[in-house]
Amino acid sequence: xxxxxxxxKRIWWNEPVESVELFWIALxxxxxxxxxxxxxxxxxTGKQNMSNEAYRTTPxxxxxxxxxxxxxxxxxxxxxxxxxxxxxPAGSDVYMIARLWDWWPIxxxxxxxxxxxxxxxxxxxxxxxxxxxxxxxxxxPGYDMVVTVTPNKTGEFSVICNEYCGIGHHKMVGKIYVR
Length: 179
Ligand code: CUA
Description:
The protein is α+β, with helices and mostly antiparallel strands.
């Protein structure tokens, strides 16, 4: 018998389990347990997955809140598509929209100040990944994902999408400035 030919004994499920099979089953169970343990362990020690809050919202509500922030605190525009660069006051709620295929707007934050960063999607699932810091968070339509951030390094940071979201996924890049 091989993986290509059918088993010679048709009623194969009454046969005793081979020891090599038992070994693989045991290995899979142990590996499964290790991976299950790694999820909470890595959350605490890996510093990649932020502890966030999540609230119900709608794409329309989230867009309105983001637009209100953009209308109030835009300091300049960038890129050929005139993306607003928004500098909200330190300590305030800042919003970033994920949509096919943008992160909008560009944020400019102050080093050492805390902000409540809100993320939501207007269409379907995206993944917020702040580079090169490698902070990651799921962004899901209908949910306002909130995380308190305190930038501790100045510079220009990229936000890339790490959840495959279609033909423009690889071009879904946003920006956060820390000054
Ligand atoms: Cu958005 Cu991939």
